[in-house]
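Example record

The entry below shows one chain as it appears in the dataset: sequence first, then structure tokens.
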Amino acid sequence: MNPWGSVHVTRARQVGELMELRNAELAAPEVPVHAHYEQLRASDSRQALGFIGHALPRAAAIHWAAALVAAQPSGAQEDRAALDQVLAWCDQPSDDRRRHAYALAQMADLHAPERTLATALFYSGGSIAPANLNPVHPAPALANRLAVVAIVEAAYRGGDPQAFFAEALRRAEAIAEHGIAART
């Protein structure tokens, strides 16, 4: 039985495919998602972070990353504005907030985790085309990939990346088991 009630994939290979791993890097077809994660967690926290970040549903990955990025001090005012818009979306999701977060991301520092997170939100659902054009949908795992990148960027902004990764994994595990409500 999969202890991760909010994770919709059941096999590690499904997550590996979302991560666009090569065939040689994919887990065997029968390996459960949680078992593979536990193996990664025991050997390499960065790989485990990427894996669980792709296993979570898109909205859950955004909530997870937002809580972690918000726990670190923000850089410039433009970075904070992008983060505040993501947090507003987490409280009350809407397409307008998603699009506004992306507009604010364009003004944030190129290397700021807040910018990466706001971009992840933009790619998390809905069309990425201008609102007045036919819908264009992003690649399915792009939001998750960017959420993980935002977490890595935030980890290196602080003083102890390994402790930050451990906390990120703890929070992701809670979300995987109990859903978005467990993000803090």
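Notes for this example: The chain has nine helices and no strands. The chain has a mean pLDDT of 94.
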